[in-house]
Amino acid sequence: MFKEMRPELRDRLREIIQDRVVLVTGGSGSIGSEIVRQLVPYRPRFLRIYSRDEYKQSLLRMEFRDSPFMRYLLGDVRDLDRLHRAMEDVNVIFHAAALKRVEATEYDPFEAVQTNVVGTQNVIVAALESDVDRVVSISTDKAVNVTSTMGATKLLAERLITWASFYRRKPHKVFCSVRFGNVLDSRGSVIPLWRDQIRRGEPVTLTHPKMRRFFMSIPEAVHLVLQAAARAEGGEVFVLRMKSVFIRDLAEVIIEELAPKLGRDPKDIPIKLIGVTPGEKLEEDLLAPGEIDRTFCIDEEMGVIVPPHRFHEFSGRSLQNFDGYTTTTNTLTKEDLRVYLKEAGIV
Question: Are 258 and 252 in contact (CB under 8 A)?
């Protein structure tokens, strides 16, 4: 699990957040709502949750019903006028709104472009025309060596965010992206699906037995997103170091651990192979070939892809190159995976 944030980073994050107005787009989603939870201790003046799902917003209202500084705004990142109004007096933005399902976006690519590309452009335009001074955008390893519509749209979103940091010198506005892999137990991911399949006594569906993915828990991912927010100077893509897992190992552990808790015998829950879905890869990468020489470790949990415009600032610094950027390395054993899932409270 993640380590305690270093004191100097915690102090810097408090300086960025405390007594200031923060907006979280996609703020009622799996990542967005956890960003909200982890920001609360830093005591923002107002924390605005911007999303288009009124039901998930109502769940957050119940969770934070004693928090007078919370504000709930219905809206879509596709709507630039609404974003302009939502950003009045905002200082910091965490941009987590996205269409993230690979298979769904293959069949609805126009929709993926509207949310992930045009929506990100709208966030940038509204931020540039307001008092916002820091934007942290959530990205994905699907943006590397792209094979899917979702990955292509998130790669464009990354490029837009990096460009935005160099659009205006005065006042300087910091834009950065944070790139990580699959998030365990997030909405629409495989674990909720498998949990429901086990509960009903159905086979657990698996696309390919040799598929590997980077994984981390929702709190772990957001903990590192906040570190990136504290570190950002402008234009970076922060890359989170993760362990990879075989999806078949993950499915087997989920069956072995959850089936008894759901009133099922693990031996009665088979794994059914359904084939790779459109846009999927067997392996994932965290870095594209052209990024490797511009990527450096900044601690054992995180690397940073330096934008070409700022690469000269890093010449002469004593930094290690980032390794472990493909799922073919650092793969967890099945038993280590079991321990990790238990520590994360997933099984």
Answer: no
